[in-house]
Amino acid sequence: MSRQSVTVIGLGPMGRAMVSTFLDHGHEVTVWNRTAGKAEELVARGAVLAPSVEAALGANELIVLSLTDYDAVYALLEPAADALSGKVIANLSSDTPDRAREAAAWAAGHGAKHLTGGVQVPPPLIGRPGSSTYYSGPKDVFDAHEDTLKVLTDADYRGEDAGLAAMYYQAQMTIFWTTMLSYYQTLALGQANGVPAKELLPYATMMTSMMPHFLELYAEHVDSADYPGDVDRLAMGAASVEHVLHTHQDAGVSTVLPAAVAEIFKAGMDRGFAENSFSSLIEVLKRPAV
Ligand code: NDP
Predict the structure, then answer these.
(1) CA–centroid distance, residue 10 to ligand 1 (Å)
(2) 254: buried, middle or exposed (CB in 10 Å: 19+, 13-18, 0-12)?
(3) How many Cα atoms are found within 13 Å in the side-chain-facing hemisphere of 243?
(4) Three-state SS annotation for 171-191
(5) What is the pLDDT of residues 143-152, one digit of tens each?
(6) 126: left (phi over 0), alpha (psi -120 to 50) or beta
(7) CB–CB of 238/282 below 8 Å?
(8) Is the CB of residue 16 less than 8 Å from the CB of residue 73?
(9) The pTM is what?
(10) Residue 123, ligand 1, Cβ within 6 A
């Protein structure tokens, strides 16, 4: 069976992993990157380096973009917009849902179809089982290119709205960045008390492994807008986060993160949620200005 040839624009660590995986699976790949030197190894393996963005667009119907953000997308594609007609852009660059919607409309204005993508895994996991990418955009366009895109990762189609894949991706990254930052905060506290990261690691792992239970329970609260205080009361949580804040203050480490957490709990108390579960904080997050 002949495999679909593809263009990849953007050869950061992610783009390079993608090209490499396409080559491993026997796809012909045309590449372009602002810093041409990053294509060297891939060209040695059989990729074709296009002399210009226009030539890269002209080489194939399916164009995979792996750029830092949508500013980079426009910086590259705007001057080459005449070459976009008839192309399918699988835009796997990170940015906001609104910018993805804007880009889909912009691409349509130039006769191209746009699939938004949000890659859920780091470069070493591209091409590995269990990895996945969110996609959204026209279903028929996704269906037509699903097999080729699945060479990179599984494809999790989230719907027609161009913004959806970006929303899911940014939702996931919200959890990633805040969780990792809370981990570093904990390690800073440990170090201030003479406890190295390796000593805290099993306890941090134990706490994060309990999270699926909490996520499931509180998803029910949030979807039903019912926050029973039968297991936990916000008033208890508000006292606890003050203890956390003061522990970090006393250790002389940054209090920016624990103070932000305490502030959100306080806003919940001010709204009269003391006897509800701390899942009632969703009301503060949804309508911060009330
Ligand atoms: P990088 O930021 O390292 O590289 C992205 C590419 O964007 C490079 O080819 C770079 O070109 C190009 N670029 C940036 N700005 C411009 C510009 N103004 N004009 C032209 N080209 C530009 O990103 P990654 O490869 O790590 O990731 C690519 C995308 O995948 C990002 O949106 C990222 O958020 C997402 N992603 C990354 C993950 C990761 O772990 N790396 C995980 C999941 C998603 P040049 O080489 O010339 O600098």
Answers:
(1) 6
(2) middle
(3) 6
(4) HHHHHHHHHHHHHHHHHHHHH
(5) 999 999 999 9
(6) beta
(7) no
(8) no
(9) 0.91
(10) yes
